[in-house]
Amino acid sequence: MDVLMLSRLQFAAATMFHFLFVPLTLGLSVLIACMETAYVRTGNKTYQKMAKFWGKIFLVNFALGVVTGITLEFQFGTNWSRYSAFVGDIFGSLLAIEATAAFFLESTFIGVWHFGWNKLSAKAHAIVAWLIALASNLSAIWILLANGFMQDPTGYVIRNGRAELTDFLAVVTNPFGWYQFFHVIPGALCLGGFFVMGVAAWHLIRESHVEFFQKSFAVGAGVALVFSVFTVVEGHFHGNHMSQVQPAKLAAMESHWETQRNAPLYLLVVPGKEGNLVEALPIPGALSFLAYNDVNAEVVGLNDIPKEDRPPVLLTFLGFRVMVGIGTLLPVLALFGWVMRNKLTRYPLYLKILPWCIPLPYIAMQAGWVLAEVGRQPWIVYGLMRTSDAVSPVTTGTVAFSFILMCLLYTLLGAAGIWLMVRLAKKGPEDHTPIQVKAA
Amino acid sequence: MDTFVETGTVHYYLAVTWFVLWGVLWAVYFILDGFDLGVGTLHPFLARTEEEKRAMLNATGPFWDGNEVWLIAAGGVTFAAFPYAYAQMFSGLYTALMLLLFALIVRGVSFEFRSKVESASWRKTWDICHAVGSFLPALLLGVAFANIFRGLPLDETGFSQAGLLGLLNPYGLAGGVLFVVIFVMHGALWLCIRATGDLRDRAEKVALKTWPIQVVLTVLFLAYTAVETQLFSNYFLYPALFIILVLPVVGLVLMRTAMGAKKWWTAWGASSLYIGGTAMFGVAGIFPAIIPSNPNPGHSLTIMNSASSPLTLGIMLGVVLVFLPVIIGYQLWAYKTFATPMGEGDIHY
């Protein structure tokens, strides 16, 4: 394997591992802040107990997410130095703003939150919880705007052999980044909801801490329902916009080969290298409609895109289907849970299935990133710089060494972390409520 | 290398401002993460009982995450303000950097993982991870910065490889050892502030014993620097710059007198002054280079050939002017809330 392929794999592994933990941080932080607020408003100790229980799991998850994020920032320099030199003027500044405006806030207050139960009033502690939730989501804006620049570069001019910033407003209002933001954040909240529902279901079927987990379930199901629907609806508009700026990604995610008007959507497709191996059950005009809200719109096929500009079809195709498939299932599951939240014990099968559904939103989000990033290939910055021109001039051995070490380390840490989270989740809340020293 | 920045223009002054800020960010990072890396390095040697082990972790627990963000910020600012230098520095120091990151990852996780399972072997594993993950960054940061002072082997394209073995030259290693000693001292003083009982007394002994070592190593490293690097040329050109050297010297003296008077906050502050002064001494020495080239200074990455566009530098300056005071404000508040001698309630997990 060459440096390019190794670097791509290493970056993919680092990003996907990081993104195993980030969505739960984004989603659960909001849920916990809601629980703490409910405690402050009602004085009901169960809500405080809830914040503490979910908070313990949150901290293990947070630790893994935060430490693996550092590698990503630095990998742009180590593995993609030509990219960094070319777009640092824009991309680098977005990352730096993220650190200044959001990451500092998140990292400073996580320590305060962790060690502050007996040092802050309940109200102040709830405010800190909101600050953490706010900061993590604020972080996501800057990261997704940086990614938005890679997807659809705006606000620059090529000067001095690099992309130089000319219009900061265009960069921070880049529709692609915002469409992603309003897709990823609700997705993460939905994931947080399903995480809470799944763990709660595990306990409810065992009749342990029933009141506690019924309350938790209701919070989780409400959030999961609202945001899973939001994610799906927004996903449609995101797809519309993407189709216009990245026709090659659209063609690859549908394995659509022939340019045509009134393009059909095939329910059964097996993509091949030079065309589809199987193509059956067409819905006339559906692809044109989904992409452009117009059944007669022309959809460009892969055959009309030069070979060297085509994304890997199979991965993009699968990424899209896995994401959409799971995305369709989640609102149904959440709706049932929300409606039946007070008589859950009557549906043991549902409760038994739910813990196994925890991985689903995770898989959907990972698949979504495969679609977004693999579908953008062969470009690192769409239409502007190829991934192959972005890689650092380093030796294969250098990358291979760090890649192998990283895989080993991440596997061990990931396994230990997930094991710990499962253990904490199964253990349930502690029965004694530690005393709050200061009054609210 | 092409030159983007003309001397005397607005662009030039923006680049100089960012160079100073870049140096300050690294200095603050060393001051803040320095003490928690130092405490982590001391962990296997100072803590005897399980309670003391937890106390040492909790002495830095509320702060380390916020401290480490200064590294992210220093990295991010290098990327944003001097992208060519960022690209060269990080790809050139590839392996050393990855090892540094892996060490920081293992250390960060150990804070959270260690006490979650009631098992001696589990705790021991994470204690080792914590100590190695604290010692290695201290050493590697020293190696990396000493090599930057000395100059990296850049070529005309700017990009070149300094393999890990190339970095482990005697001067680089000397830098590594100096950093470890500085951070251990800084961490011991922090423990004198936060720990109690036997642990605190042991930390005090370490601090008192480390001080003369730090003084001797500082003098030796400065002499070695004069022989091995071009760092002093700026100082002979503008002797007024030697004022910066006053900071670490005052820091060292004040540190000792404060320790004698058992004023631990003052001693820690003096140690911070020493670290900040030493870092800025190095930064001022390499100006206008960010990554000096050795043996061919013509290939150096400087503020002239590495800086971002004036628009980016200007916008970033605005962002920093707004957010930095806010960050300093809430970090100070966090320190004020938690940086007190730990009582019973703080040793829990």
Automatic annotation (TrEMBL), chain A:
Membrane-crossing residue ranges in chain numbering: 12-33, 53-70, 90-115, 127-145, 181-205, 217-237, 313-337, 349-372, 399-422
Subcellular location, record wording: Cell inner membrane
Membrane topology: Multi-pass membrane protein
InterPro entries: Cyt-d_ubiquinol_oxidase_su_1
Main location: membrane
Pfam families from the UniProt entry: Cyt_bd_oxida_I
GO cellular component, one term: plasma membrane
Family: Belongs to the cytochrome ubiquinol oxidase subunit 1 family.
Protein name: Cytochrome ubiquinol oxidase subunit I
UniProt source species: Pseudodesulfovibrio alkaliphilus
High-level lineage: Bacteria, Pseudomonadati, Thermodesulfobacteriota, Desulfovibrionia, Desulfovibrionales
UniProtKB/TrEMBL annotation, chain B:
Membrane topology recorded in Swiss-Prot or TrEMBL: Multi-pass membrane protein
GO cellular component, one term: cytochrome complex
Tagged with keyword Iron: yes
Any one Gene Ontology molecular-function term assigned to this protein's record: electron transfer activity
The entry's keywords: Cell membrane, Electron transport, Heme, Iron, Membrane, Metal-binding, Transmembrane, Transmembrane helix, Transport
Entry annotated with the keyword Glycoprotein: no
InterPro entries assigned: Cyt-d_oxidase_su2 (IPR003317)
Localisation per UniProt entry: Cell membrane
GO biological process: aerobic electron transport chain
Primary subcellular site in the record, as a coarse category: membrane
Positions of transmembrane segments: 12-32, 69-86, 92-110, 131-152, 172-194, 206-224, 236-255, 267-291, 311-333
Family, similarity comment: Belongs to the cytochrome ubiquinol oxidase subunit 2 family.
PANTHER family, per database record: CYTOCHROME BD-I UBIQUINOL OXIDASE SUBUNIT 2 (PTHR43141:SF5), CYTOCHROME BD2 SUBUNIT II (PTHR43141)
Record's protein name: Cytochrome d ubiquinol oxidase subunit II
Source species of the chain: Pseudodesulfovibrio alkaliphilus
Source species taxonomy: Bacteria, Pseudomonadati, Thermodesulfobacteriota, Desulfovibrionia, Desulfovibrionales
